[in-house]
Records
---
Amino acid sequence: MAAAEIDLRRLLGPGLAAAVALALLLALWVFGGRWVAGKAAQYHQAHAALAAAARQYRNASDDQAVYQQYAAEFRNMNRRGWIGGGSRLSWIESLQHINRELKLPTLRYDLGRRRPTAVPGAELDASRIQLLRTPMHLTIGALHEGDVVNLLHRLSEAGQGLMSTQRCSIRRADDAGRIRFDPDVANLDVDCSLNWFTLELQPQGGSS
Amino acid sequence: MKRLLFFPGHRIIAYEWHRGRFRNVQAFEPDEAGRTAFRAWLDASPRTPVQLLLDVIEEEFHVDRVPHVLGRDRAALLKRTAQKHFRSTEFRYVTVQGRETRGRRDDRLLIAGLTNPEILKVWLGLIDTARVPLKGVYSLPLIGERLLPQLGAARVPRALVVSQQVPSTLRQSYYERGRLRFSRLVPGRYDDAQGYVDFLRRELDQTLHFLETQRFRRRDDPIDVYVLAGDDTHEALREGLASTDTVTCHLVPLSRLAPRLGIRGGLPGTFADAIYAQVLLRQPRPANHYGLPRLRRHFFVQRARVGLRWATVALVLAAVGLALGTGLRARAYMRATQQARARASEFRALYQQRLSQLSEFQYRAVDVKNAVDLLHRLADAASANPGSMMARIGNVLNGHPHIVLDDFTWQVSGDPHLKVDVDQRRPLASGTPGLVHGIDTSGKIYRYALLQGEVVDFGGSYRRAIQRFDAFVADLRGSGQFGHVEAVEAPFDLKPDSGVSGDSGVDAPGDKAQRARFAVLVRTGGSDGRG
């Protein structure tokens, strides 16, 4: 047997032991690393879920604060028909109801088409909030100017939406300036341009 | 424990050494019994490496000079030079001992060689057969360089160390500034201590003379001679050796030198062999002189085995450490994951609780806020109506019975300087930015009223009519109710650039037929603070 072969045989045992130890180390390195990486991934996942849950809770808390601050006004506006209201039939009925009390000799109305309108300076998500405007024109035969003011005030309080008077022209009906004290004859010819505003809101979870 | 073999040329002496203490010193003769005993000694501890220290006559030392080169050339040159000096043996050793200070500054070499390696063959064969690791084969004079510091001769220009390792020989090694330059081993026979002194003096004289003839030193160059003496010869040497002008003799008793070198338990004999053995054994990695690779292969194998074992241990420890580290990291992640999940569950429960409190609203909070804010702004702007303006004008009119209004036009505008269409006698429609369908979103809104009417009962007097109109306008301005009052049209325009016509005849229709019409524009709101 050659000397070199004998030498190699003497190295075989320790060499094998070192190789086994190295293999063990590498196996631990690889599989242990994967195992820890898996645990780390689980941790990061759980941490992300925790962050999301905390954020959701914080948003809910913020929402609650907002609701608490704006709830009363929101309900009031809702009640007054500024939000979601705006039935034309109801508005006409309201006008007829008002005139049954005011008994104006002439009261003609002209409602335009309701259309969305942009509000300059207001950054709103149009998919969630929409301001709608209906142009209106009233032709009134009034006994005196108080009838006009009264009519506009009562229309505003009728709960059908937000009324905005843009222009009113009041002219004596008699060119000579005579005043008639007949409740069926108008002393003033009045033309008013108004805008009827309502707000449409998308409910939570609704398509945007 | 370390094992050392000392070979003085005939028999071989074995030492076992542990932390400065020599024990189990055995001598083996070169006969069958000696070889058998030597093999038994080797087999007693086959894995312990042995070091072989030579102190033989067959060892020669040469000095030479070669050009100073670097790298592979240097190794080849040294090898070639060693072969040149010792062609018949492979037991040779070459070392560079510095450079010349003059000329081309050649390297100074010392080449050592065993001229008759056959004397070692038997012993090396036994070592190889027993597979005992041979760490190295060392030259005693070269090892002696490490002894010089203990003698105080490390920096001495010329030092001659004289020692006796066996009774029959005398070793004389010459060192220049700590480096071996020459060494000779001479046999000698003497009967007593005085005979040894005579022998030593004679050999010393010869060596000094040899150094002169070989130009290692000139006659008048001083030299220090260190004589390592045993207790039995010390007294005789002290009396027999005397220093001269150039030769300074130092008598170094072995019994004093041994403790300085760290030998414990005393010297195993009366000679200096253990001194050199101690110097060699104390070195962790002494430079091998004559140990050929084929002779040292068992040592290499053994080193490799030891290295592999240490590597195995290190790898296992690393694996254990890695496993522990991995386990701890994984455990930390698992705990953190568990905690995060628990906290997330708590947040979800709190969220559900909060959500139940918010169930009343079907709209998002941000939409609710935006809606309320927007409608607030719209409502503020929309609150304007002609009633307020009518009331203010009515208050002023009460003080002017001769002013009669027959047309009142009210308009909202964002324009602070609204013009009047004179022909149509009404404010112009405004397209001012920021005013959307009568509702101002920038916070600036103006309400205009165009008042049209006439002055009555002025008796045909233009002056009176104008005075009454002017008084009315002045009262409007002085009321503090309006931010701006502008007379758009006066009852009679008497300005030079206007034409004037009338009827002042007797049959004129009188003041009833004459109309003193006017138009006044008033404004409230905006930044003038008068709403």
Note: Chain B touches chain A through 78 residues (CB under 8 Å).
---
Amino acid sequence: MTSEPVVVLAHGLGGSSDLPIPYTYALIGAAWALTFTFAVVALAWRKPRFDPDKPGHALPQWVTTVVDASLTRWALAAAGLLFAAWVAMAAFFGRPDGNPVPGVFYVLMWVGLVAASVAIGPIWRAISPTRALYRLLRLARLPAGGGYPRRLGYWPAVVGLFAFVWLELASPDPGSVSAIRLWLLAYIVITLTGAIVCGDRWFGRADPFEVYSVVASRFSPLRRSPQSGRIEVGNPFDHLPTLPIRPGTVTVLGVLLGSTAFDSFSAMPVWRTFVDRQTDSAATATLMRTAGLLAFIAVVVVTFWFAARATGGVDARSRQRLPGLMAHSLIPIVLGYMFAHYLSYLIERGQQAVIDLADPLGHGWNLLGLGNAEVNYVLSLHPSVLATIKVCCVVGGHVAGVIAAHDRALRVLPAGYQLTGQLAMMLVMVGYTFTGLYLLFGG
Amino acid sequence: MTATHPDKRFLALLAAGAVLLAGCGSGGDSENAQSSPTTPSATTISPSDMQNEQAPPDRLLIDVTIKGGEVNPTNATLEAKTNEQIVVKVDSDAADELHVHSTPEHTFKIEAKPAQQFQFTVGVPGKVDIELHQLGTTVATVQVQP
């Protein structure tokens, strides 16, 4: 074969992408989504069921003791720092082909973090290298910092998340190691400076990865008991409403959902041909993709905002609070679509990234024997299984979102408006799901 | 490369608008260049056409022309099977690189000459972009089915 390794990867990671799901799968998924939605609105419970204060099944005390032990915390922080140093070595001195940095950045940090957060909780807080650096600085007598301005809310994280999806989906060369390196350096500098100025609140509000991890972890069955702080297993639907409502909460979810949809959309030949026709230079193509990405995010945020407010019987002040109060119901939809879209990336490119990490500099190292492993393309080789999983993720996420929204509507909407007040939200959610399925089916 | 791009719109305008300017060109070559943008890529590269031309039917031929920064076809959608021979035939007036975003990836050097052939197979099913790296143009996306 006259092939040689690719030097610069397009589309972030290069390689092939998933086959479109068959038409019938999309149709069946859409039918189920619609049926479930109206079944929930018309037939489901009429009294709110989910309550964040409802106790779960507490795990044995030693689990909480071990998780909270300062030895565990320092070990996790050290592991995070060590891993970051290893990746930094690859970013600065790695070979151009087979460099693990794009895989670590786009797959492990973006998709792997979500999977881990749903499974066990907001893990980024424990492994974040910037938090670890900050803890070391505090040990060296750094003052605690001034306090985080409440009005900023999640907006710095929105900017950070947008910067991430912009690099992946709109920038001229997403796969370039130097671009990712620059992004990560800026992220570390901004996060550390913010924490030094505003104190450690900054991490929870402004670090895009931590906010992302916290958002995903609200659908985890594992949580801390609000009363005792013990780790317990509970119903994820009781956990969902604990999503903090701050300025920017809805936009965080809008960035996550809108960007994933734009990723599918921007691979469609119609969009590519359109961009090619309109522009000749890479710079204007980047501008057009940026505009497209912003438009997708804006559509999600604006439709959700209007749908949440579209009810009768409330005064202006409580209407203003409705989008925030409903925001948590978007989490399952985001997660479902995220996994539908990136599951094969996580499983297959994730393996590739781990294998590449064994020898980041191309010196023939073989850390932990990982270099001998071969990627198992188990999902790509079975496209119909993958398509079924995708449709199940999207429809499952939709159903969970609808259930969460229904329950919340019963709690926050006034009597007499609990059914009609939900309708706009249900229609918008059906709209998200139909669009998601349409994009997965490839138009 | 960007210097040649303004030609693109100009050429399209010429070809779409009137043939009379074609007569002003220096010869047959420029006439071809002007007429190519008007031909929709779908008709020149439809998979059924390919198979009629080929003796063995399990082979996908993609005919690519690069002339004055203009590529034909672009963003075509094609289908193939895993391990089927995929042949890309390139007539080019400029050096470039052909990137095949399959798993694993393939890269071929394109020279400024006609009738270059590059051949590869794809073992893992998926959507494979075939891209001209210097021009930043996607020639075709091949849906490789198992």
Note: The mean pLDDT of chain A is 89.
---
Amino acid sequence: MKLETKLTLFNTLSKLVIVILFVLLLPTIIKNINQNFADSKLRKQKNNLLKIIKSSGKDYAYTSYTPLKEEYYSLEEDTTGEHLDTIQNEARKIEGDTIQYRILSFNFMARNKKYLLEIGKSVGTIDETTSPLQNMAFYILIGMVLLTILADQVYTNYVLRPLGLIIKTKLIGRKFPNFGSYVEVKTSTSDFQYLDISIHKMVETIEQTFQKEREFISNASHEIMTPISILQSKIENMFEREDVADEVKVRLLEMQKILNRLKSITKTLLLISQIENEQFLKEDKISVTDMLNEVYEEISIRLQDKNITYEQSVPQNWTFVHVNKFLLFNLFFNLVNNAIKYNRENGGIKIIGTQENNLFVISVIDTGIGIDAEDMPYLFNRFKKFRQSLQQDSFGLGLPIVKSIATFHQVEIDVKSEKEVGTIFKLNFPSQLVATGL
Amino acid sequence: MNVLIIEDEKALAQELEFFLTNYNYKCEVCFSGRSASERVAVNLYDFILIDLGLPDYDGLDLLKEAKKTNPEAACIILTARAEVYDRIKGLDLGADDYLPKPFSLLELHSRMQAITRRKFGLKHHIVELGNFMINLTDRTISYQTNIINTITKKEFDLIAYLILHKNRTLSRMQLSEHIWGSIVNNDYDSNYIDAHIKNIRKKLNLYAQPDWLETVRGLGYKIKINA
């Protein structure tokens, strides 16, 4: 669940609980308030009445009530001996009706007589405001809750926006390994500032490490090239000498073969690091068919051995634009070379171009031995050799080259494979790399 | 022809000298940029081989100097720095060719030959092999009066390379480096050269047996031309 939703949900729920609690308590509170209010009113009335009685000087007994029996007064001689000054709920029978009153009872002495004064207010009148008050309070509260939820929603949305921005620009938007420069996400929330700077520092560390690795590979490869060059020249010169016996020359060739292996690995690593350092331009334009024909020309000799058929069906009007020809050539060469190497006798290779939505898809399909599902995730790893790669003459850098060239051109690769049936490498070229004009 | 080899790796410079002397070039060797700078100011050369990564001198500066004092010389850059940028810069400054290390000595020779042919404008460079005529300029093979058009580009490259290094045994590796050298390849198998040679023989056999194309057992191939 999103943080924003969570916050809003929590706000809503907590407010609802508080409102419900308050509304449930409301009758008791209002009843209390009303009673206190009624009691103080009764006391005021008592004082007023006492003043009237004392000033009039008459002695009389008196009972009266309002026509709707809401209020009730009585003054009579008190026969009991005890002192009374209480306010409590009691029932009184008036004209045959028994009505609950809040009654103030007070006895006092006047002119040697003891009087009992009772002032009552019907409980019904006291409580009649409770229910409308409760309703009103309920509506007002609900309205306020809705308003605060809306305000919360807007505010959380506003306050959390930098978080979304950080995730979008600093984490998702980043394309490994080229991170670009640091752009501060504008926020006054210190937590987000901290998060932003922390992510930036982390990314910087990754970038530096990566950069160091690339530099190392590049420098190491260059440094290795010179000694290889010397060795190769020495072997070549020795190979040409007439005073060297043929048995020795055969051994020189074996040395040369091992040196070649070292050379290929170094060259390949250097190429990959150069691609990853973006040391290639993407300014070439070439017809797809022409490029595939060139690949075929270089590689056709390898089909002969296993008698593999080769078929190519890519629309004639497709042209690669903004690409590096040398790199793309190597990409296709390595893919087709693999398709040959892992093929069966009398197998086939098909290269098919199809347009899918915005993508130009070039598939290299072989009838080879296939790839184990468990090996799939490691397919593009450097120096990863698989059990089924029977040949000892490869060193597991063909697909890493393919991968880095594809990534350099923003081409996605999908691999589908079925054991003993074949493998499909689908290259998804974005539309800006392929022109269809004539 | 006079060649100046500018290379700070002494062992490599010596091998270059040994190889080129063998091919009848007159070589001088400089191990430092400063001595090379003095040398190009005084002498005239046909070829100047420059290693770009000299410790005491910027290789590209040296190239500029050499071009000024030796405008006729063909400059070939030898470098372990295979960056595209250097490549463009080097060719812009008038380098005639560029060989990334490690390179095969045969390849160096073939590039030098190509430059020589270009400079002296050899119109018809035709080699006669048995009854076959090989025209290295037009890149055609003919038998008596028929042009054989079944030979592919790769196959012709192989024949031309063997002719250039005639009477020497070239290993399969040397041949495949020439044919597929620019491709960054996953494997180092050179058996495909055999397939090419087999195809060439099959195609030529329709006319006559190409005895001049010899297999040297265990070592490689050679084309014999009696001078």
Note: Chain A touches chain B through 54 residues (CB under 8 Å).
